[in-house]
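Researcher: We are triaging several targets before committing to wet-lab work. For this one, the compound of interest is L6ULR443. I'm pasting the protein sequence and the ligand SMILES. What I need is the predicted three-dimensional arrangement of the protein with the ligand bound, expressed as structure tokens, so it can go straight into our comparison scripts without reformatting.
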Amino acid sequence: MTETLKRTLRDSSAMRWAMLILLSGLTFSTYWFQDFFSGLKGLMGSEMGFSSEEFGRILALTTIANMFGMIIIGGIMLDKWGIRVAGIVFGGIAVLGGAISALAASGFFGSDHGSMLNMIIVGRILFGSGLEVVCVVATRTIVKWFKGYDLALAMAINMGFGRLGSAMGTALSLDIGGGHVSPAVTFAATLIGLALIMFLIYTVFDIKLDKQEKAISDKSGEVCDPEEDFKFSDLITLIKNKSFLYIALLCVTFYAAIFPFMQYAPDLLINKFGFTQNLPQAGEVILWGSKAIGASSIYLIFFLFAILFAVVPNNFENKKTRFLFKSGALIAFCFYLFVMKDILAIWLDNGAKTASLIPLGTIIFTPIFGNYVDKKGKAASLMILGSLLLIFAHISLSILDNVYIAYFGLLSLGVAFSLVPAAMWPSVAKIVAENRLGTAYATMFTLQNWGLFLFFWGIGALLDFVNQGIPEGQPKDYTIPILVLVGCGFISIFLSFLLKKADRKQNYGLELPSNSN
Ligand SMILES: C[C@H](NC(=O)[C@@H](N)CCCCN)C(=O)O
């Protein structure tokens, strides 16, 4: 695009990607705060005396405001106040919630069991009220900057930041806490505070963009097509649509089998398969850290060159160049794995670090499957496949006792967790008109929170129930609590088939490539 056509900030690609990074701080930190307790479950039992049911209660009550309409209220506020005010208000609520939980974990409100538990829950309720609306604000902001430019890629990268936050929160919280819960909670809450500062910086550019767009529309008389405000009648119309109903229910059962599982996964791996939760010695950390940073920087430099090389026009037209590029990438990756092998071996022996590979893997797999859905379609069939993988994963992690099969189970869970979202979210956009998408996503997230509430709490309560009499610190039997999740997998398959059948009647083209619509 020539300089004369660059009319606003959003016409500069550097500006757009910089804005995405400023915005993604909130996604990264809120996903971190949502998931970091998973790595601390054992410690919360031994240090604070929290039972599995209480652990589950803390997680479940995070969703309570969303179950009763907070996401929809947040969406209406977003429409009325705009991105800046809504982002600051709901980001601020998440920060406040994080701070209250951190103070509670440090004993500020009282160091007895009840005060700590109740005040951590108060903090989590506030945090949860901000979390989902922040996700909606992020999506709306990305659309504002990227419509007409790499919108799907920008959304995938934003989601990648979220998954990275989940993975790092799960993997590193025990190390960050140094064997205590409180420092890890303070760190997680501080991250949301820093992200809010990044968002405040973002708002400066947002104001400038609005001024530029207003000046252009004043001059040319252009009027934008506004998204219609939320109406309850829309909700009824949506629910009456069979395809929407099936995909919304699938969202409930599928995510209920994934997000709650991830909160318990490190503890499951430790209790059932004997994974460790040992903290490395300071010397080991320095050695691994320097090795990992060294190897990763070399790989990153190679990767940057590869990207630079790939974006030079027509490079990939040539078969030989393509072959050289692919072999180079493979050799660099093998070298990277070789240097990192000791660290990987230790990583794969640690419960929290192994569990963190599930969200980490989705960063790579989701865009690949997203691209497949865009080009080849088959979204409903892929949701059936994802649900099958979910069933295999939960069977291998519950009734089977083999650690190698468990690794396969975790891998198939990672693939399912990439496959279904990559097929599900673009399918909603085929079923629902664009100006109703906000309502559709808010409705799906609200229903999803009901499923999460039930399973966050239910798994913990069931775990205590089937392990009555076993003292904290002794291995717990996870068979029945995880086997219950197999049921979610079967319901997901059933709903995916119903969706496929409804789509054949209603002709939304869920099995067709996105580009053909
Ligand atoms: C896209 C989808 N997002 C959600 O499900 C939201 N309700 C945010 C949940 C955040 C909790 N970690 C996803 O993350 O796949």
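Researcher: Any quick observations?
Model: The two ends are 27 Å apart (CA to CA).
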